[in-house]
Specification:
about 110 residues, Beta Polymerase, domain 2, 5-stranded mixed β-sheet
Length: about 110
């Protein structure tokens, strides 16, 4: 599965606090969201560069990257999997894990 391979690549790039969230059925934007932290803007950029190179070597051609100018928050869109790489304070501010990990109103909690 590509999402688990991406987690491995992020770990290899020394990304921190890597979280994979199953968003299948919650949105049409994808099936998986992966959130990770880089220590500085340079680290965020390096993680994104290393991830895109690994994806291309793996044969994934539909990779879109946004946010490389400032590297506060870089989004790597791989189709069904969306990767967010943040600086720590930016990740804390947006708190995507809380937003996407929660259940929708009226939705039964899923067993873990």
């Amino acid at each position: 599965m590509l999402a688990s391979q991406i987690v491995t690549w992020l770990d290899d790039a020394k990304a921190e606090d890597i979280v994979s969230i199953d968003i299948k059925g919650k949105t049409s934007i994808g099936d998986h969201m992966i959130v990770a932290t880089g220590r500085t803007d340079r680290h965020v950029g390096a993680i994104a560069d290393q991830l895109t190179k690994s994806l291309k070597e793996y044969g994934v051609s539909n990779v879109r990257v946004e946010g490389e100018q400032t590297c506060d928050w870089v989004l790597v869109d791989v189709g069904a999997t969306i990767v967010h790489i943040f600086r720590p304070e930016v990740r804390e501010f947006y708190n995507l894990e809380k937003m996407w990990s929660g259940e929708r109103p009226g939705e039964a909690p899923q067993p873990h």
